[in-house]
């Protein structure tokens, strides 16, 4: 799989090395390579024509859907995205990533299962069986809408009743062992059914207080590294060993390891802990780039660059704003050209993304 992907990318790499002499071509090819790294979003039921144009130009890696995008026509819209992508010069036989948050219970963007919240799954008489069913149900629902990647399950280990993660029943349990067992069962069942799984929010939002929402404001989680290792990161070990497709990082700051950067902008978390200590070789994806937690880290393009510099593979432009995705793509292209982003690090990420997309069942 990796070998075929490298073959596909060979022309792009060639252009990178010829950057000085073939500036115009190189810039265009760079834009296309960068496009694989950015997931776009749009407002309302009718996608803007401009989004279809960008897809045809190969500048879009995938699309995230929200409630406001969902009606009974959505699977036709998604089919049109894929048809547009097939006209792109870089189309290589595998689809755009089409994703949403279908966790279960109250957190479902699409009508359909999983009916139970993660909490109900964890509290059931047979948590493993219930989590398997939840993973299968999520896959069935996503496939009905022609989607191929779910931003679930949540592996956060909640601490207090009604805290940030528990208030909507998004955490399987306050016990790492139960979260591990359920997370693993959900991931395995969903991936077996042909839908990519994403474990979130690394290294864990389980200790976040009720009103600590990274979508709105900066959040600091003051756990010791030992607490993080022995509670929050336990479910990731098992999921990674089982071949988990994607990990979504959180935007909280964990001063025990990095007191400056939120996890998804932190080399220490992304490269040190996730890739280094935990040995994750799959694809990393950010949480929403427009999140309030990042307000001191510049505009969308700057945040995207900081995340890519930290080693994040996919950047989530989920502000229902096509320009946001474009701004991130343009920022990364400029950074690759001016040497502010390592081409080697970035190409490894491209390889991982395309390798994963190649596995998607049609
Ligand atoms: C369904 O979506 C397609 C693709 O965007 C669009 O062309 C068509 O007009 C939509 N139909 C309805 C009934 O909304
Ligand atoms: C988990 O929550 C239950 C109550 O729902 C409590 O009895 C138990 O002590 C908690 N466990 C931990 C590890 O906090
Ligand atoms: C859309 O994204 C662009 C680029 O980041 C930004 O300048 C603009 O303010 C955003 N628009 C909205 C409505 O958020
Ligand atoms: C490189 O990126 C950093 C942020 O990571 C920024 O401060 C700096 O201005 C950038 N340099 C160039 C030449 O764009």
TrEMBL record:
Keywords: Carbohydrate metabolism, Glycoprotein, Glycosidase, Hydrolase, Signal. Residues 107-132 are annotated as: Disordered. GO terms for biological process: carbohydrate metabolic process; peptidoglycan turnover. It comes from the Eukaryota. Residues 117-126 have a biased composition (Polar residues). GO terms for molecular function: hydrolase activity, hydrolyzing O-glycosyl compounds. The keyword Kinase does not apply. Residues 1-24 form the signal peptide. Residues 52-354 form the Glycoside hydrolase family 3 N-terminal domain. InterPro entries: GH, Glyco_hydro_3_N, Glyco_hydro_3_N_sf, NagZ_Beta-hexosaminidase. Belongs to the glycosyl hydrolase 3 family. PANTHER family: BETA-HEXOSAMINIDASE-RELATED (PTHR30480), HYDROLASE, PUTATIVE (AFU_ORTHOLOGUE AFUA_4G13770)-RELATED (PTHR30480:SF14). This is Glycoside hydrolase superfamily.
């Amino acid at each position: 799989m990796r070998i075929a992907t490298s073959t596909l990318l060979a022309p792009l790499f060639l252009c990178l090395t010829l950057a000085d002499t073939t500036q115009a071509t190189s810039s265009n090819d760079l834009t296309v390579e960068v496009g694989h790294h950015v997931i776009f979003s749009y407002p309302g039921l009718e996608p803007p024509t401009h989004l279809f144009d960008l897809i045809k130009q190969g500048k879009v890696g995938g699309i995230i859907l929200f409630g406001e995008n969902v009606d009974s026509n959505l699977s036709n819209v998604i089919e049109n995205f894929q048809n547009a992508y097939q006209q792109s010069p870089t189309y290589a036989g595998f689809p755009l990533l089409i994703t949403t948050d279908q966790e279960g219970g109250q957190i479902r963007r699409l009508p359909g299962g999983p009916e139970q919240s993660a909490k109900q799954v964890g509290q059931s008489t047979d948590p493993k069986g219930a989590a398997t069913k939840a993973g299968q149900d999520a896959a069935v629902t996503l496939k009905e809408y022609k989607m191929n990647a779910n931003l679930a399950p949540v592996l956060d280990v909640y601490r207090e009743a009604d805290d940030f993660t528990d208030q909507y029943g998004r955490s399987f349990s306050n016990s790492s062992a139960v979260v591990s067992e359920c997370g693993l069962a959900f991931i395995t069942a969903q991936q077996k059914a042909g839908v990519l799984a994403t474990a979130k929010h690394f290294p864990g939002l389980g200790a976040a207080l009720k009103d600590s929402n990274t979508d709105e404001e900066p959040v600091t989680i003051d756990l010791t590294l030992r607490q993080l290792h022995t509670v929050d990161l336990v479910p990731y070990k098992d999921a990674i060993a089982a071949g988990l497709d994607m990990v979504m990082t959180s935007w909280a700051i964990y001063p025990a390891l990095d007191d400056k950067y939120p996890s998804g902008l932190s080399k220490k978390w992304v490269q040190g802990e996730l890739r280094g200590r935990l040995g994750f070789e799959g694809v990393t994806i950010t949480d929403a780039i427009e999140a309030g937690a990042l307000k001191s880290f510049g505009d969308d393009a700057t945040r995207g660059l900081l995340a890519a510099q930290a080693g994040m593979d996919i950047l989530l432009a989920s502000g229902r704003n096509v320009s946001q995705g474009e701004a991130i793509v343009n920022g990364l292209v400029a950074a690759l050209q001016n040497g502010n982003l390592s081409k080697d690090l970035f190409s490894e990420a491209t390889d991982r993304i395309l390798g994963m997309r190649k596995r998607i069942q049609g």
